[in-house]
């Protein structure tokens, strides 16, 4: 058995990701909470899920929806208390599920006591806990130390009037970057952000922006890729820096004491060699990562600078193949995912959310995911085939700082040009993170059963036709299909979780076909990514294991139909 084939709970387990603000509100304040999550654990378990991942529930001013943490050891009061979290951990374990939390330690909130102390003066004992630099003067004009653009627009440096220096923030100004070069900082992170929760029994972490910890000391300018802008994309400057492997080995030693699992976010890393540094088992860094090639499909150079569906199927296939072949003949592990809280809904992005195609599309994408190797991740509502909010929604409904900053940037740069704003809006309707954050659709009552009062974010208009209650009773629903599919994945875990992936007919722009092979067994998967019928006869000597269509046709695949065959 190769190391990749070695059985582990975190390889075979299916992960269900929960966004606390939007999952279930138990106390009618319009914001989801931990008791709400506990009340739906049986529902989650019924899907066939084994691991629950909770997005940040720590205390936070919520500038970036909890990814700006002001206290790692406290819970954001509208979500509940530490004691609620202890109950959640217990209730997950009681149902034989593992639970992982989000570990956000590239940065803190500017309201964290560490940063408050750091910014007090240049002599503060915690000054060096964050990344402070003097200004650069160009023709007497004060400028930040380099031209890096933050992930949420504008310079990645914020001027601090009181102490006359800039601090680095790769995300919002309210999210200052911690200085991982400082050993004291690393120890404080392990203790406060990690061991505090590991001691309470959690089973691991999803590790936020994990490849950004080491920026190097020089931090040179990024190349100019957007000549009209002052600040430039710098992802290749601040990701995968020189001390990454050293920092992660150190962190891994802490995690190893608890046998905790890790899945790291790994943007701006496009080669297998680059990814393997993090996930090769012998390197002892992370168990697996989310590669970004798949979710970057169709995004413009500046993420939203694109038109909807500006991609072709071979690009998506190549991106997926990259995550699958990573584990072929190596000691690495991988992930299978299409959605999370940072992505628009997969049906709307990669298939069709037109009413006549939504269900078929949801099942077809589910079939693809559940037959891919690696740990499978499902994002709340994906199991129902939830889709993007409609184009008619005004910008006021978009709550994410990433969306509003982008729209504002286009407005400023175009002088309010209606055409530019319309295309910015079209791109946001297709790709914005907000679409993943609309409240979970539980039933067809007002506010979709998420809450009995007006939720913090508008419920998607389609909740009367797409909700958990209806789908639980409907054998033909996306939810029922996911349940069957996850049983199949478990039954054939050799093939689907651990098998070797081979892409077929890579250039085909309509059909995505691949095989999975494990020793003597082999499966063949074919997926129609179009709204038209496609020729596609059953392979010889095969048995149809599962298909998405209610009334399949032998000689052709229906629009958005997917099939998986077992080969003799
Ligand atoms: C990645 C998280 O998934 C995203 O939601 C967040 O905005 C950034 N990291 C910053 O923490």
- Rg over C-alpha atoms, rounded to the nearest angstrom: 23 Å
Distance between the termini: 23 Å
- Share of helix, binned: 25-40%
Shape: globular
SSE-based structural type: alpha/beta
Largest sheet: 8 strands, parallel
Beta-strand fraction estimate: 15-25%
- Biggest sheet strand order reads 13-12-11-5-2-1-15-14
Superfamily at the CATH H level of the largest domain?
Glycosidases
By DSSP, the count of extended strands is 22
In terms of per-residue confidence, which ranges show pLDDT below 50 for 5 or more consecutive residues? none
Query: Which cofactor or ligand species appear?
Result: 1-deoxynojirimycin
Please work out how many helical segments DSSP would assign: 19
By oligomeric state, this entry counts as single chain
Q: How many distinct folded domains? A: 2
Second CATH tier, the architecture of the largest domain: Alpha-Beta Barrel
CATH topology of the largest domain: TIM Barrel
Using the coordinates above, name the CATH class of the largest domain.
Alpha Beta
Overall pLDDT, averaged?
Answer: 97
